[in-house]
């Protein structure tokens, strides 16, 4: 397994786990030019655990139960891959959010706050 280059490590990108094109477009609309959103519906599309670490945070569409299991996604990320990339969940009812908290999702917002979330977190993780 080749080591990522310094250039790869400094790229500003985040994972957007959803199949909702409207949500993807809303996120892209406020994503700074030097950042890259990576929309996926499965963590395996990103690659191995070390490929996930090349992303600064993950935005998880908690209302996507038909496409993927949000709780299982966070469980896989935290327990199997043992990766501590920040997970920001959008949507979901109180019960689902409680389950996501138990699996160590970090922050919770409503889906319509995607623009605020992208702006805030790309600003917070804008090092390098």
TrEMBL record:
The lineage of its organism: Bacteria, Pseudomonadati, Pseudomonadota, Gammaproteobacteria, Thiohalospirales. This is Response regulatory domain-containing protein. It comes from Thiohalospira halophila DSM 15071.
